[in-house]
Amino acid sequence: MPRRIRVIGGGLAGPEAALTAARLGCEVDLYEMRRDNPDDPARPVLTPAHQTTEFGELVCSNSLKSESPNTAPWLLKQEMRRAGSRLIALADETAVPAGHALAVDRVEFSRRIAEAIAAEPLITVHREEVTSLATDGDALTIVASGPLTSDALSQQIARLTGAEHLAFYDSISPIVDADSINMDRVYFAARWDKGTADYINCPMNREEYAVFLDALTTAEATEAKEWEKAEYFEGCLPIEILAKRGPDTLRFGPMKPVGLRDPRTGQTPWAVVQLRKENLRADSYNLVGFQNHLKFGEQAKVLRLIPGLENAKFLRFGQIHRNTYICSPRVLDDRLRMKEHPNLFFAGQISGVEGYTESIASGLLAGLYAAAVAHGEEPEAAPRQSALGSLVNYITQADPKHFQPANITFDLLVPLEEAMRKKVRDKKERHRIVCERALEAFDAWWASRGLAGSDKFAAEIKE
Prior knowledge:
- This protein is of the alpha/beta class.
- The chain folds into 2 domains: 5-163 and 326-457, FAD/NAD(P)-binding domain, CATH 3.50.50.60; 172-322, Elongation Factor Tu (Ef-tu), domain 3 (Beta Barrel), CATH 2.40.30.
- It contains 14 helices and 16 strands.
- It has helices at 13-23, 72-82, 86-93, 106-118, 151-161, 206-218, 239-243, 296-303, 328-331, 356-374, 387-397, 418-423, 427-448, 454-462; strands at residues 5-8, 28-31, 63-66, 95-96, 101-104, 123-126, 140-143, 166-172, 175-177, 187-189, 199-204, 271-277, 284-287, 314-316, 319-325, 344-346.
- A hairpin with a 4-residue loop joins β4 and β5 (101-104).
- The longest helix has 22 residues, at 427-448.
- The radius of gyration is 22 Å and the shape is globular.
């Protein structure tokens, strides 16, 4: 019998790892600290950022990024689909219209994950906090406790890694009630008219943008809590921080109007705020890229300056929460296990990947690698040329002195040889070649794995 695997964390990476290992014949104990409170049912045990106790709750956005062929996020998801990722399959099943992005109905997505876990007889769910990690004996553990790992477990991880955690802030975008949007002042469009027009666009002229910018940069921020320290992640900066970097920073960032011509005027606005569907009912929209750290009253005042949102009803305001992660280049090998304690695997944001898709990807790999060890085999790392392999290569080989979490980008993938780069000048064609090469490498790796249970797993994927 394979060794039992303990998975800590019920976000995205944990359930993906648990489902993957179970499908390979391993018994799994899945732990999640968010739980119902029997002493006060109205106040469940949560984290500062979560609003439910559900598996796979999407906190910041409902998007799993681009589905445009030959983009880096598309490539990562294509590899995961070929590997039978359960959560990506569930994301496909619960997708909502979002142009070229894979966005999901948050509630339905979480519900489907819970159903999949409940239907797997090899997974036992434990609604309790884990405060210690076994490093000896036969215990195998995947730590996927996420960016809000509890203090007790954080101390254990810090002790084992030999260093304090690094920390930065992650951000949550506001959500607005669809019925409160003034549709006379907005328009549906996709950038450059590519894909379906699933985004609501709120156009601003130069004067409206100036008024909005002034209000944003003078708005009062939420007071920092005792444990907070302003170390923002560059890939997810609050809009008020971006705005203070220069008057045009937002116009070249989340409010970029390029390719979003207003069909009513035939002109491109000075700036645009985009709203994306939260669910299939289209009864709520999130403000794309509008994560912030302002007081709720200030947010309402500032965001209602956006054309179309004058009378907006906000279902959720933007927030900031802590994100903790280990210095993976110092402590992890290319199988996502600790160098000093090979029975411990890490996955999800705590391992140094950034983003929902990347977290699921690391959970998939951790589940595969831990299952191999559970069966008494040495796991074979995903190939460097693949998106999966490139993501792990970054978090395990980056400069540890300057390590920051990363999304999947072409910068992480193996570049084309110099001769090929000179021959192929077109950037899109280069990306196509890189993606084609990555998928070939992935397919060869996947076909060569001899892991016990793989045949049954492959049959399920084919079905």
